[in-house]
Amino acid sequence: MKIIHTADWHIGKIVNEHPLIEDQAAILDDWLNQTVALAPDLVIMAGDLYDRTLPSRDAVQLANRILTRMTRELDCPICIISGNHDAGERVAYANDILASQGLYMVGLPTHEIAKVSTTEADIYLLPFSDHLSLKRIYPDETIHSIEDATRVQVQAIKNQWDESRLNIVLYHGYVTASSMDTPGEDLEKSKSERPLSIGTSEYVPTKVFEGFDYVALGHLHGSQKVGSERIRYSGSPLKFSKSEVNHHKGFLEIDLDKATDSIEVTKHDLLPKIDMRVVRGQFDDILVGHSDDYIFFELTDDYTQHEAMNRLKQRYPNAMSLEYTALKNEQTINHTTKRKVFQEKPVWDQFGDFYAANTSLDLSEYQTTIVQDAFKAILEED
Q: Which of 5, 66, 194, 250 would you call most buried, defined as having the most Cβ atoms within 10 angstroms of its Cβ?
């Protein structure tokens, strides 16, 4: 059985005030073209279809277009669950109608676990939910954390499954193979991933999913396996933060054979038209370059540069942010200790002190003359 596993599309994502909707449209079209060519038996999208619970009009239009293409061009079931960024009700909208077209969108958990069956496999869909909501669905169970809630759901699956068939589960959240004393140490995370809960553990140990032929995970944006070839995050199709600039984005092709109890994993690359990267160096050296990439600048200059970001944007229109990494001068003035001195000095000398404190440079004789003339002219006008 051939499975295509993707996740974390975050349609409608905005990074540092830059909307990525056109980039997302291009990369999802590329993903779908590659996926159609691979002729899979099942397509999985493991959560975070949208970036916000209230997606924008452009985001909904893109989701509608790509999902419509999927139902028309893929000759296999398509399974999608909600993630922590989604509103489950919106993902689940019209799911019964869509199921008739082979598109199974499960946004809300139910007591009876959602299942999609093919000739070879049973696919179980566990949309994201907090443990309190699942406690209300299973009032007779002891549920104090996401781990407890997931154990209850998985046990409900195992109470009914047929072990002679391929059993696949979709899950969105943190799954860890490390000790629960230090959960998540084995995972590659990024700053894009929003916390899942407050006050309780967010992590589910891999042993909860023992026995499944494949566990398709969403939430982490870096592609990675978790303690087993059969438990994997596909990663997101695009870079969404500075912490992801070194990721190699793509999607997974999973080939499962129940008869031989084997799994073969192939990663397929997705290359954006506009990359996201970090550029580090001296301001003057960087300013001679040019790029349309999304760039986070790290300046190694000893002193701040005048209008640095505005000047960089003339050469790098998609500049994301600017950070100084090696400043030598103090950026603040102790106004309390300086106040008496300032009161005893002419205003142009006070300006000279301010300039020196912020640049570690003294005004030249020519600059001092300009400053004096300017302040004297202002005082005369007053």
A: 5
107, 191, 228 from 160: Cα distances, Å: 22, 38, 24
> Which of 353, 301, 347 minimizes the C-alpha distance to 322?
301
CB 75 within 8 A of CB 49: no
Residue with tokens 């954006």: 272
> What's the gap between Cα 379 and its chain centre?
55
CB distance 176 to 149 below 8 Å: no
Burial of 340 (0-12, 13-18, 19+ CB in 10 A): exposed
pLDDT score recorded for residue 329: 60
Q: What local confidence, expressed as pLDDT, does residue 333 receive?
A: 37
End-to-end CA distance of the chain: 84
User: Tens of pLDDT along 346-381?
Assistant: 777 888 878 776 666 778 877 888 888 887 777 666
Residues in Cβ contact with 255 at an 8 Å cutoff, skipping those fewer than 6 apart: 1, 2, 3, 263, 264, 265, 266
Distance CA 126, CA 206 (A): 15
**What is the pTM for the complete model shown?**
0.83
Q: Which of 86, 122, 123, 121 shows the shortest CA–CA distance to 107?
A: 86
Residue with tokens 């974390």: 8
The tokens 């696949």 sit on which residue? Answer: 168
Instruction: Report whether 38 contacts 29 (CB < 8 A).
Output: no
The span from the CA of 335 to the CA of 344, in Å, is 14
CA-wise closest residue to 213 among 141, 131, 122: 122
pLDDT for residue 212 is more than 80: yes
Question: Burial of 218 by CB count in 10 Å (0-12 exposed, 13-18 middle, 19+ buried)?
Answer: buried
Token pair for residue 359?
Answer: 């640049």
Residue 88: what are its φ and ψ, rounded to 5°?
Answer: -55, -35
Average pLDDT value for residue range 299-307: 93
